[in-house]
């Protein structure tokens, strides 16, 4: 199978990924396209990569295009990834919301770009651990991603040994998972706490009720500066005034959106709307 891509073919893939997902592939990433798309081309029965890319050009956007975008976007994730935002959620954000929402008794949390589900399920476990403080509360956890395939995996709630070895404390594994064959299945009551839905962050969003907490981690870094600004402006519109936004360790709102201020939450940073301070 011909594995190397011409400039023109690389450009076709680069444009497709940018137009559909807003994800930017740097010019030097030809090798990445080759390694990620070669197995897909083989699996789809194409003679070589060129033939696959030719088919992308010749046909309207459809399942093959989606699979290519999927193969070209990073999906890496882990339970308790970067730990500090989750410590902040447990130690200050949730207890604080339990007080602030004492009358409404409802808290809405969104994991945008949730990949295979480890992030929203980490949130679900932490909520579960605070049952007493959150007694009588309705806790809604929405998890969204562009990738149908990742969402299907997430909904299934089954994880390989390697995935549970990465960041999940043993006591959570024992308490919330059951071994099924060589996989670990999250208990149904935890799976039921999370609603998974497709949402492309780069396209117009449906009507969404505002959130108290948003995890938007490790996705914005793949977007260009203009798209980051647009995204943060959209996120602002779905935040309650006193909501907390968590970004990935390599991401920030600084230089992208002045409406946010960075607040120290234990050993993590959260982002809050400046107007929240004015109303506090
Ligand atoms: C690296 S993972 C991050 C997962 C998780 N948030 C974390 O930090 O562990 C990035 C996810 O963003 C998703 N993604 C990429 N572009 C997207 C877009 N335009 N809209 C929604 N999700 C997108 C990918 O499908 C992938 O699952």
Could you explain how this protein is built, in words?
The protein is an alpha/beta fold and 280 residues long. It folds into 2 domains: 7-71, Chemotaxis Receptor Methyltransferase Cher, domain 1 (Orthogonal Bundle), CATH 1.10.155; 84-279, Vaccinia Virus protein VP39 (Rossmann fold), CATH 3.40.50. It contains 12 helices and 10 strands. It has a 5-stranded parallel beta sheet with strand order 6-2-1-7-8, with helices on both faces. Strands 3-5-4 form a 3-stranded antiparallel beta sheet. Strands 9-10 form a two-stranded antiparallel ribbon. Helix 1 (7-21) packs across helix 4 (63-72) and helix 2 (30-43) packs across helix 4 (63-72). 37% of the residues are buried. Bound molecules: S-adenosylmethionine (SAM). Residues 21-23, 73-77, 81, 113-115, 119, 145-147, 150, 200-202, 217-219, 248 line the site of S-adenosylmethionine (SAM).
Q: Topology, pairings included?
A:
Layout: H1 7-21, H2 30-43, H3 49-58, H4 63-72, H5 84-100, E1 106-112, H6 118-129, E2 138-145, H7 148-156, E3 158-160, H8 161-165, H9 170-176, E4 177-180, E5 183-186, H10 188-191, E6 194-198, E7 211-216, H11 225-237, E8 239-247, E9 260-265, E10 268-273, H12 274-279
Parallel strand pairs: 1-2, 1-7, 2-6, 7-8
Antiparallel strand pairs: 3-5, 4-5, 9-10
Helix pairs in contact: 1-4, 2-4, 5-6
The structure holds S-adenosylmethionine.
Summarize the structure.
This protein is 44% helix and 21% strand. It is α/β, with parallel strands linked by helices.
C-alpha-based Rg, rounded: 20 Å
Hetero ligands: S-adenosylmethionine
Instruction: Tell me what the CATH architecture of the largest domain is.
Output: 3-Layer(aba) Sandwich
* CATH topology type of the largest domain: Rossmann fold
Count of the domains: 2
Number of DSSP helical runs: 12
How much of the sequence is in beta strands?
15-25%
């Amino acid at each position: 199978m011909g594995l190397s891509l011409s400039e023109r073919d690389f450009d076709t893939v680069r444009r497709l990924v940018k137009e559909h997902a807003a994800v930017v592939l740097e010019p030097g990433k030809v090798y990445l396209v080759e390694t990620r798309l070669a197995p897909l081309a083989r699996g789809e029965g194409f003679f070589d990569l060129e033939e696959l890319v030719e088919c992308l050009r010749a046909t309207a956007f459809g399942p093959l295009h989606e699979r290519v975008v999927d193969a070209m976007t990073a999906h890496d994730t882990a339970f308790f990834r970067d730990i500090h935002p989750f410590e902040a959620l447990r130690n200050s954000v949730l207890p604080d919301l339990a007080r602030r929402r004492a009358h409404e008794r409802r808290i809405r949390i969104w994991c945008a770009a949730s990949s295979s589900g480890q992030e929203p399920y980490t949130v679900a476990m932490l909520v579960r651990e605070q049952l007493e403080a959150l007694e009588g509360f309705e806790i809604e956890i929405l998890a969204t991603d562009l990738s149908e395939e990742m969402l299907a995996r997430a909904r299934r709630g089954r994880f390989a040994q390697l995935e549970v070895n990465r960041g999940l404390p043993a006591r959570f594994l024992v308490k919330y998972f059951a071994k099924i064959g060589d996989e670990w299945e999250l208990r149904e009551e935890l799976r039921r706490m999370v609603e998974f839905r497709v949402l492309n962050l780069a396209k117009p969003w449906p009507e969404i009720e505002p959130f108290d907490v948003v995890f938007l981690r490790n996705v914005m870094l793949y977007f260009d500066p203009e798209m980051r600004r647009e995204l943060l402006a959209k996120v602002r519109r779905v935040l309650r005034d006193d909501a907390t936004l968590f970004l990935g360790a390599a991401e920030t709102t600084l230089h992208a959106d002045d409406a946010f201020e960075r607040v120290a939450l234990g050993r993590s940073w959260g982002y809050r709307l400046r107007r929240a301070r004015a109303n506090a």
